[in-house]
Write a sequence for this structure.
């Protein structure tokens, strides 16, 4: 089954760290408070985003700490996917691991204005600007990584393997 | 054609004759490290999915270092659970509150060895590359997976090499060298890649100074950040492991994606300015920056030599009245040695605050947090907006010498001013 995500675009620049997605200064706040600090680096995002929105990032998106709460928080906000010029490697792995669609696509920043509608065809590494009628292919993922996302994440895949072996 | 250090290790760990960059392999991991963020969540998530055993408890190392001593009930309860699970799983390599920072303990306690493959639930796991170990960070779900399977998937990275020529000048350290690399080549130069640090400067550096650079390898995107394991590495490991260890390096005809060569002789102390690690200036260009906090600590720069060099600057001087100097030794071993050699006394007499070994405020997880509008100069590895507290605070990074000099002057200061 192919994973296709569409949504309204929020744009971010280069070097967006995982500290900005899971800030330590809000680690002891409850979720309602903590979620207001997610991606505080963008002046309008914390109050303006809605479930189903998507993110277009610059280069090195998700650099820094290994905190898995970074993609987990984006997923909890209802963000559908992140398409960026390039990613920090741990954020990228963590996203695949928790079945959060991400695509590295050089040239994607110039392809979108904030508020445009994006469509990501995850399995085909294809991103479309539905507002402007343009499309671009990102860096393809190997089938085993696509399978992790399709299975609902690495732990879900492990669980399914265990159940299959026990049968 | 020969192989790089990353290729050699991934080939061995995946049972292959050779591997090439770009391909995916399943590799057996030699050690898995988790701390009070990662191990806690990793075992929680294993249990939540119905798994209660691990592949091999002897390959797991657990450290409580991020919120130490427990600073609230939530942290305390996490620590309590970890102690119970470590016992239940039969994990012998467990370092409780106050023993030190995971990335200091892994080399100190002989868990990170040349030629081995290590994963850790922390981005600064690249640190052990200083000993010729292929080590890299993962999120907690992947630590869970690695603990259960004893293996994980890896893409074989391309390798880039930094050939560092010349000799570091007086008051210039490997921290300055690493900040210079980040500033010059930028934060993405090693994205998805392995790095090898080589050349005469790399050979001259002590193990402690190599650790600083490998630790910050992740700040330029690196998956692994190697130095060759040489006689110095073997001397360091003597008495720390009973495993046989050998020197380890790349093949002479290994293939590199790029080789960046530069002369380090003319370098002056460097400072990373807000709010990113590659926003680096030579100290003479930083301008007048008053600081309310100066922090010497973290897995980057709080080992015995770091503290000695900072103490040489503090000796017979007092911390500025408008500034607080916070010292957090990286481990119990560092603290014990720094008591024996008189360094702790120098810090106390200079007016420093000393906290027990652990991560401290580096990741904003423990005490030493910054208020809105405050500025800190720190020997740590990251200066992201809000990392050490308020998003309205300012964070600068430098060597322990630069931090000590700045604490005395109350503003960011060239440490050479206080050197005889």
């Amino acid at each position: 089954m192919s994973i296709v995500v569409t949504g309204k675009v929020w744009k971010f620049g280069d070097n967006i760290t995982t500290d900005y997605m899971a800030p330590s200064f809000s680690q002891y706040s409850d979720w309602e408070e903590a979620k207001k600090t997610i991606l505080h680096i963008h002046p309008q995002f914390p109050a303006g985003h809605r479930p189903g929105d998507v993110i277009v990032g610059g280069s090195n998106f998700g650099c820094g700490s290994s905190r898995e709460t970074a993609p987990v928080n984006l997923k909890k906000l209802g963000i559908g996917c992140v398409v960026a010029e390039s990613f920090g490697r741990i954020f990228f792995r963590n996203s695949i691991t928790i079945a959060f669609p991400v695509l590295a696509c050089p040239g994607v920043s110039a392809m979108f204005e904030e508020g445009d509608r994006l469509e990501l065809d995850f399995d085909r590494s294809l991103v479309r600007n539905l507002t402007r009628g343009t499309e671009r292919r990102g860096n393809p993922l190997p089938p085993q990584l696509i399978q992790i996302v399709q299975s609902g994440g690495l732990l879900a895949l492990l669980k399914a393997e265990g159940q299959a072996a026990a049968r | 054609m020969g192989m790089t250090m990353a290729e050699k290790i991934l080939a061995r760990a995946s049972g292959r004759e050779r591997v090439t960059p770009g391909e995916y392999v399943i590799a057996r991991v030699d050690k898995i490290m988790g701390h009070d963020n990662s191990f806690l969540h990793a075992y929680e998530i294993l249990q939540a999915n119905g798994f209660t055993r691990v592949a091999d408890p002897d390959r797991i190392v657990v450290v409580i270092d991020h919120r130490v001593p427990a600073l609230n009930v939530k942290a305390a309860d996490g620590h309590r659970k970890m102690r119970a699970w470590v016992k239940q799983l039969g994990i012998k390599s467990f370092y409780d509150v106050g023993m030190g920072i995971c990335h200091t303990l892994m080399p100190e306690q002989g868990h990170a060895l040349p030629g081995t493959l290590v994963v850790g639930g922390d981005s600064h796991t690249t640190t052990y590359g200083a000993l010729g170990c292929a080590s890299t960070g993962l999120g907690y779900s992947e630590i869970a997976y690695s603990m259960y399977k004893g293996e994980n998937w890896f893409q074989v990275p391309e390798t880039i090499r930094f050939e560092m020529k010349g000799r570091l000048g007086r008051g210039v350290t490997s921290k300055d060298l690493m900040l210079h690399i980040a500033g010059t080549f930028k934060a993405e130069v090693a994205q998805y890649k392995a790095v090898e640090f080589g050349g005469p400067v790399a050979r001259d550096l002590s193990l402690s100074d190599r650790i600083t650079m490998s630790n910050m390898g992740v700040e330029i995107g690196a998956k692994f950040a190697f130095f060759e394991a040489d006689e110095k590495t073997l001397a360091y490991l003597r008495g720390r492991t009973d495993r046989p260890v050998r020197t380890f390096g790349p093949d002479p005809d290994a293939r590199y994606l790029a080789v960046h060569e530069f002369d380090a002789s003319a370098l002056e102390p460097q400072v990373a300015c807000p709010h990113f690690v590659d926003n680096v200036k030579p100290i003479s260009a930083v301008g007048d920056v008053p600081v309310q906090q100066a922090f010497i600590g973290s897995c980057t720069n709080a080992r015995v030599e770091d503290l000695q060099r900072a103490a040489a600057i503090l000796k017979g001087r007092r911390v500025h009245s408008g500034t607080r100097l916070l010292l957090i030794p990286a481990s119990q071993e560092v603290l014990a040695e720094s008591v024996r050699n008189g360094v702790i006394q120098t810090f106390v007499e200079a007016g420093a605050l000393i906290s027990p070994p652990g991560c401290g405020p580096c990741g904003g997880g423990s005490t030493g947090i910054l208020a809105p509008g405050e500025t800190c100069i720190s020997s740590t590895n990251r200066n992201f907006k809000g990392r050490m507290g308020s998003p309205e605070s300012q964070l600068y990074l430098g060597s322990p010498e630069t931090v000590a000099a700045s604490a005395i002057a109350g503003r960011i200061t060239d440490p050479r001013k206080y050197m005889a």
